[in-house]
Design goal:
The protein is 21% helix and 39% strand. The chain is an alpha+beta fold. The chain has a domain of 88 residues: OB fold (Dihydrolipoamide Acetyltransferase, E2P), CATH 2.40.50.140.
């Protein structure tokens, strides 16, 4: 999975030694804010000192993060982690729908749901009104778009 946004906070580095193997470990957490109409904040982690140095994330960086989500149970409670396996600096362009399709759908809905003065004039010139498709079963035209 991928997410794009801006690093707004770098949390303190966590370090320790594995009790099982005796090897040192490092975990760095970052808070990313998405760049959308309604931004979301996501805390993700990078495990391993080599990856922490390789990704070199700083506050204010715009990044694209590839990550895995994993949940695990401990003493009857569930914990979820978002662990990054790749961080690319800069944003990757996302595909968006073509504006023509959106404009056509909006125009059709507007024309049939709420007639304006221009549309009423056009409807009088053309006897087949566009809003006849919304007639109810008993023939009443309520101008409902659904």
């Amino acid at each position: 999975m991928e997410i794009q946004g801006k690093i707004i906070q770098v949390l303190p580095l966590q370090q320790g030694t594995s009790q099982r193997t005796g090897n040192p470990w490092a975990l760095q957490s970052y808070v990313l804010e998405t760049i959308e109409q309604y931004p979301r904040k996501v805390c993700f982690e990078v495990f391993g000192s080599d990856r922490i140095q390789q990704f070199a994330c700083k506050e204010g960086d715009e990044v694209t993060v590839s990550f895995d989500i994993e949940s695990r149970e401990f003493n009857g409670r569930w914990y979820t982690s978002i662990r990054a396996w790749r961080v690319q600096h800069g944003l990757v362009a996302a595909t968006t729908p073509t504006p023509t399709a959106t404009t056509t759908a909006t125009a059709t809905t507007t024309t049939t749901a709420t007639p304006t003065t221009q549309q009423q004039t056009a409807a009088s010139a053309a006897p087949a009104a566009a809003n006849t498709s919304f007639d109810s079963v008993d023939g009443d035209n309520e101008d409902l778009p659904f």
